[in-house]
Amino acid sequence: MPRLRFLTAGESHGPLLTALLEGLPAGLRVDPARVDAELARRQHGYGRGGRMKIEKDSVRFTGGLRGGETLGGPVSLTIENRDHAVWTAVMDPIAVDPEAAARRRLSSPRPGHADLAGGLKYGRRDLRDVLERASARETAARVAAGAVCRELLRAVGVELASGVLSVGPVAAAEPQEGWTFAALARVDDASPFRAVDRSLEPAMVAAVDEAAKAGDTLGGTVLVAATGVPAGLGSHVSWDRKLDGRLGQAMLSIPSVKAVSIGSGLAVASLPGSRAHDPIEWTAGRGFSRPTNRAGGLEGGITNGEDVAVTLFVKPIATLRAGLPSVDLDTKEPHRAQYERSDVTAVPAAGVIGEAMLAFVLADALLEKTGGDSLAEVRRNLAAFLAAQEEL
Asked: Where does the chain have alpha helices with state H?
């Protein structure tokens, strides 16, 4: 049973986004400035739209902390939506200006979005009722919750990072030994794309500019990784306890992520077994290790002590300025999909969200293994577990 869980609530233009994180041990120090830094990273990146100029995300903790430390109970936090005025003016069913609200009704669903599928499921004729919750704006709350989980991992020596591998046709080549955390050491968070290969960023900028002029959008791929992860998190004994499966579910829940590769998952499918797996070594002082990381730090659903490395495949944003062919819900006649303010690409942001989800999954697996109601107890139990591994 998971030790850690979180829920988010709120709509894209509602008053607040809220997250509730349950299962953290007591005694974990949480610095709101660190959380705000992660929220700022999520908003950064070339090709972002006008919403990023409106919002300046900042977290407010409303429960579960005292003196900057967790108490063992649920942690609640909120993020204000500065663009809530748009909701009030033209999106609320009882808006001051009903005519403006009618003009903003979404009745021509956008292919690739949750608009039509969500409307059919929940019986909503104004698809804005679906759009508002399906919007990637919700991920701000995830990033805040993930930043808190990140503090737990940092307390036991685990660090996380991400970097863009490709945008549209511009792509970095995967090393033969597989992706590791070291590949992310060269990423500059202040650069336009946070690219793993900085030399590709001018070409990425040009690709986004070209797509913007054409009214189009671009996807890409992102590497998300963690280092310092102890061996033995997750389990092979049941399908729903395998950590790679849990990682896959978490990453695929990120808007626009359509595929996930762990380690060299895609590349090894075409290799013989002799080249697809990581040899095992043992050295005094270090113990077991592997000279390559094609498995991405996971074997049999369990961490093996190497860097956990996950690649996210992000589809192009489905909101296009010209609108793809669609149907008007009222007339059932062909109609161009309605345009909503959007980005040309949000690939760099996907990496930051991926870090948050990786932090949550790893923190949950850590607490699952160590137990502990306080951070001190978690550390003691982890130390004992690692000491036992050295005796094998």
From this structure: 32-43, 51-54, 84-86, 98-103, 115-122, 128-134, 139-155, 201-213, 243-252, 265-268, 273-276, 347-370, 375-390
